[in-house]
Here is the input.
Amino acid sequence: MEDKLGRIEDLINQLSSLERDLETLTPEAREGASQEVARLRTQIVELLTATLREGDVAARRGAAYGLGKLLDERALDALIYALDDPDDVVRGWAAESLGAMGHSAAVIPLVRALKDENPYVAYNVSTALKRLDPELVSRHVIEELSNPNHNARRRSVKLLGEIGDSRVVLPILRCLQDEDDTVRYESVEALRKIGDRRAVPALIAALRDDCRDVRYGSILALKEYRDPRAIEPLIRVCLENEDLRSLALQAIREISGDDAIAPVMAAIEDVRALVSMVAAKITKGKEEYHRASG
Here is the structure.
């Protein structure tokens, strides 16, 4: 495999060197040489695209790698075809090459590939989509938010957050109701990154999500939003959820300043005292009952 990759890379480096050398020639000499170099490039592209479709695993890997170096649009269809290759490495390099090529025709095939089961491939697919036209990508990625495949939904909402277009806020808000915990978590993360205040009520509601990660992400998002509407719900987290209390206190401090912490801490102590008092009453009542029964 490494030997094939090495030979392909040597061939492409030689082609690149020839293409650079054209700039040093006189106009008369350059014309004829350019045609020869162009023919050589065509032959290499045709060889690699054919190999990508028909070669063995090692050959297909080498072809996908080589076409990623050439970035020739004539390889576009073959690279799109390779997104369905049975080999993870071929799919990963094909996705990377399509992103580097930057052609809009790759958007829909790459969006469909977001469901890939291999994390390496999925990472390359997401990275490639971030290099393409964000408006076009967002329009097609939104459609994947209802995909039955939870990986496709999770990666789609994460990608929308990384693109950061506020026009996708409403579709992301609907994902906070997704049955999958990871989709809901990536939704609060996406809303944190986008920073649109329309998300505040939904983020407050997510503080009561069944999943701890979603609650954690919601606190982080509200901390960055610095919206006063979050103060009361965050105080409630401090009183009811010891596990997330420290993070909620940090969020309150970020929103309202250091002076806000002392009243919250006093409220926490009042709740502790109330719990102790109620527990003592219950215990005392139980003891009196047993004495009366005895």
